């Protein structure tokens, strides 16, 4: 069995995909397959991919169905013990897969692992550390309760799954426009698996100029929907935790609405207001930890 299957959904990313592919094929962990799922690109993305001669690269073209469907196609094609995801405009550090393999082999209870990341704002030059509003977890292993309150992974390009964690038919929800990755991570940890944090910046996430605010609002709304749905499905959900998670979701919607100039920001803030003291204390606690 191949150690890693790397799934790369792509849609009109001809200007970025070659660098993304290079960052996979140049990994220190060489026992891998890279599956590129072209979701109906029309800009020459396929030609860029087919120009590579590495036998570890497989290319699959399908009509445009969205990123969740592309990732599900990848899951069906994957042969690896571990499954990693890289968006076609993001990049990996050369030791990304090596670090994840070390953690997943050492901790068999982990159904997924995720790493810290840099953000590259298009046109800004050098990668920047993750945004100040996105802080890493304070502990190395997290469970369902942790993930219900917040999606700690940041981006799917930071995540590696243990294939066995998908044995019960788990997959990406193709009805979601965004947040389908968070929905799957939550489903995995709700089954009893844990999530492990690799405390190194091993992913460069590209923030493209055409998706800075509208996408943030759409993501916040879909994440709120995911939290509400997952909480309703879980028998282990206690009312206080669910309430806090939903209120956190409304705060994210309020913030994203305000940034986007959407007038619903005040209504969203009113729904999320009770959670403000909790998350303010969390931020203060983290600042104190950083200074010690």
From TrEMBL:
<dbReference type="GO" id="GO:0016740">
    <property type="term" value="F:transferase activity"/>
</dbReference>
<feature type="domain" description="Glycosyltransferase 2-like">
    <location>
        <begin position="5"/>
        <end position="130"/>
    </location>
</feature>
<dbReference type="Pfam" id="PF00535">
    <property type="entry name" value="Glycos_transf_2"/>
</dbReference>
<dbReference type="InterPro" id="IPR029044">
    <property type="entry name" value="Nucleotide-diphossugar_trans"/>
</dbReference>
<dbReference type="InterPro" id="IPR050834">
    <property type="entry name" value="Glycosyltransf_2"/>
</dbReference>
<dbReference type="InterPro" id="IPR001173">
    <property type="entry name" value="Glyco_trans_2-like"/>
</dbReference>
<protein>
    <submittedName>
        <fullName>Glycosyl transferase family protein</fullName>
    </submittedName>
</protein>
<keyword id="KW-0808">Transferase</keyword>
């Amino acid at each position: 069995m191949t150690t890693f299957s790397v799934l790369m959904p792509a849609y009109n990313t001809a200007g970025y995909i070659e660098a993304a592919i290079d960052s996979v094929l140049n990994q220190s962990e060489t026992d891998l397959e890279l599956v590129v799922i072209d979701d109906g690109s029309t800009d020459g993305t396929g030609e860029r991919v087919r120009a590579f001669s590495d036998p570890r690269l497989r290319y699959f073209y399908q009509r445009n169905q969205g990123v969740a469907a592309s990732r599900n196609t990848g899951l069906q094609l994957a042969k690896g013990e571990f499954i990693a995801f890289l968006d076609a405009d993001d990049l990996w550090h050369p030791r990304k897969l090596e670090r994840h393999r070390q953690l997943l082999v050492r901790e068999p209870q982990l159904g997924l692992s995720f790493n810290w990341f840099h953000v590259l704002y298009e046109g800004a030059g050098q990668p920047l550390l993750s945004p100040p509003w996105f802080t890493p977890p304070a502990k190395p292993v997290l469970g369902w309760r942790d993930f219900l309150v917040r999606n700690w992974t940041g981006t799917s390009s930071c995540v590696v799954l243990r294939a066995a964690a998908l044995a019960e038919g788990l997959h990406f929800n193709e009805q979601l426009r965004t947040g389908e990755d968070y929905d799957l991570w939550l489903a995995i940890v709700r089954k009893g698996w844990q999530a492990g944090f690799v405390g190194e910046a091993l992913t460069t996430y590209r923030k493209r100029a055409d998706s800075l605010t509208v996408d943030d609002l759409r993501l916040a709304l879909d994440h709120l929907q995911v939290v509400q749905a997952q909480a309703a499905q879980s028998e282990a959900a206690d009312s206080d935790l669910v309430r806090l998670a939903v209120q956190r979701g409304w705060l994210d919607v309020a913030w994203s609405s305000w940034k986007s100039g959407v007038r619903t920001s005040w209504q969203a803030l009113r729904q999320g207001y009770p959670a403000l003291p909790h998350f303010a204390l969390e931020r203060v606690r983290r600042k104190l930890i950083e200074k010690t």
